[in-house]
Amino acid sequence: MNSKTKIGIIICDRYRRCAGGKCFRAMRNKEGAFSIYTDTEVELVGYTSCDGCPGGNIEYAGEEMVKNGAQVIHLATGLVVGYPPCPYIDTFKAFLEKRYAVKVVVGTHPIPKKYLDMHTHLGTWEDSAWKPLVAPTMSDEVTRASYD
């Protein structure tokens, strides 16, 4: 491993008190959406919330993270698993990619089993638009259960 990827993480403001334990564990273990970094070291250069709907902090946070060297910004798994899931995910992703020419990945840690079970029951992610948004954070059953 001779390369380093600098990342930022933006979490849903509903979880603003989150200490980031699941995201940081997944980043360290390269699980969930962090599994794309198998051949590179990951350095966190920013961690913040969107500042609540409709994402008033996205512009400032993206700019700050890119100034700090972020090559990739992760929109945390909480934006996908919250009730309801964030209605602005696509907007945030498109804006950050266009404005800052940075790669944006939806997801951080694997979707915990309890959230997968509930959203499956509710049919939340049945629409084909959700498939690419949840794909990076799907994992095997054992890993998923360890994030409950």
Q: What is the topology?
A:
Elements: E1 4-11, H1 21-29, E2 41-49, H2 58-67, E3 72-75, H3 78-81, H4 89-100, E4 103-106, H5 113-122, H6 131-134, H7 141-145
Parallel strand pairs: 1-2, 1-3, 3-4
Can you tell me about this structure?
With 148 residues, the chain is an alpha/beta fold. The chain is 36% helix and 17% strand. The protein is built from seven helices and four strands; from the N terminus they run βαβαβααβααα. It has helices spanning 21-29, 58-67, 78-81, 89-100, 113-122, 131-134, 141-145, and strands at 4-11, 41-49, 72-75, 103-106. It has a four-stranded parallel sheet with strand order 2-1-3-4. Strand 1, helix 1 and strand 2 form a beta-alpha-beta unit. Helix 2 (58-67) packs across helix 4. The mean pLDDT is 94.
Largest sheet: 4 strands, parallel
Q: Kindly state the mean pLDDT as a whole number?
A: 94
**Low-pLDDT ranges:** none
Distance between the termini: 30 Å
Count, helices: 7
The dominant shape is globular
The helix content, as a percent range, equals 25-40%
Rg, Cα atoms, Å = 14 Å
Strand order of the largest sheet: 2-1-3-4
Number of strands: 4
The assigned structural class equals alpha/beta
The helix/strand order is EHEHEHHEHHH
The fraction of residues assigned to DSSP E strands is 15-25%
Which characteristics define this entry?
148 residues; alpha/beta
Short description:
By secondary structure, the protein is of the alpha/beta class. It contains seven helices and four strands; from the N terminus they run E-H-E-H-E-H-H-E-H-H-H.
